[in-house]
């Protein structure tokens, strides 16, 4: 799961005495955040598949309203995200080929709702991959107290932060022949004084499709003993990006010496039916 910050989206001046700023958090690849759970964590339409049922659930103790929309996102080389309005070169949006219902829901505590997602206008699809993100945004309670009286403030101007939580999941349409592959390069192991040892690597993507999978890092001692030292699930490289720089913390144990032996790194795509190894590398340590 990748966290990224969206710029402040709304500013309210209430009776010239209270300034309220709304900040929004996004989570790529879906998960539970702000008492909201969304499954599945991504949707891919390929072949004859034309619809998908999404489940959203309110895990909180209070009723909540969620607004659903389609947004466009750019992935940067370091894996962070930013919202965009125009596609980058080689990028195609899926939003104009998608429809969903409902567009907003109110959920009681522990209540769930099905969101219907469909592909439309398929006759207009050109070969390649199209991507947009379905964004689930929590709407603040209208009864939230926006003003409080501060007797010590002669100006009467106060600032209150109201967090708005959201989850975005990628929705990908693949038309015609699409294929993505990965090669790992620039693998280095270093130690940070505060955060401990970590491995960094460069994902090099090839083809006309995004890739998505789990990274497993194992330490192999000089005696041949293998120990899992890192696991990162749901790592993606989206089109049109050709590279993504990954940094993963490693287990810091006294019986593991990252100056001898070697690291084994595997990048695997998993589905409900099978697993496919997308990339593999072994790196001698020194």
Characterise this structure.
With 286 residues, the chain is an all-beta fold. The chain has two domains: 2-175, Immunoglobulins (Immunoglobulin-like, Sandwich), CATH 2.60.40.10; 180-284, Immunoglobulin-like, CATH 2.60.40.10. It contains no helices and 20 strands. Strands 1, 2, 5, 7, 8, 10, 12 and 13 form an eight-stranded mixed beta sheet that branches. A five-stranded antiparallel beta sheet has the order 3-4-6-11-9, with no helix packed on it. It has a four-stranded antiparallel beta sheet with strand order 17-16-19-20, with no helix packed on it. It is globular and about 60 Å long. The model is unreliable at 1-32 (pLDDT under 50). InterPro entries: Ig-like_fold, PapD-like_sf. This is Molecular chaperone. It comes from Chitinophaga silvatica.
